[in-house]
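Objective 1b of the project was to move from sequence-level analysis to a structural picture of ligand recognition. The entry below was assembled by the postdoctoral researcher (A.K.) and checked by the PI before modelling. It contains the amino acid sequence of the target and the SMILES of the bound compound, zinc ion.
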Amino acid sequence: MNEDRTCAVCGQIFLPRAQSPSQRYCSKRDCQRERKARWQKQKIKSDPDYRENQRHAQARWSESHPDYWRTYRDTHQAYKQRNRELQRIRNSQPRHIAKMDVSALDGRLCTGFYVLAQAVCDDIAKIGAWIVHLTVISDLSG
Ligand SMILES: [Zn+2]
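Corresponding predicted holo structure:
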């Protein structure tokens, strides 16, 4: 009879399946992935044939995907280009931006640049902040 045991990855209690009484990992996908990774790492260390096979498989993969690194470089270039563009836009924006809470606007919102920041956050240093431009289309506050 199988007893509960603790998963070697996530530490949660699980019941081993009847057909694998020595099971050390629960059935969660991440834990199974980790199990496989550990097995593979161990195998590469201990089995020269396996190591050699892996090396060949990798070489074959590179051969059959000759465009992989080129594509990677190209998309990477596009990414860098996009970042440069965004930086350029940021640089062209007004240097000083009025720091003002919407609540301090006395019911009036003016067209202009604002820093939009997430209000609820434990770690203020990590929050995202965005410079946004708000255009007031119509002011119904009278
Ligand atoms: Zn687990």
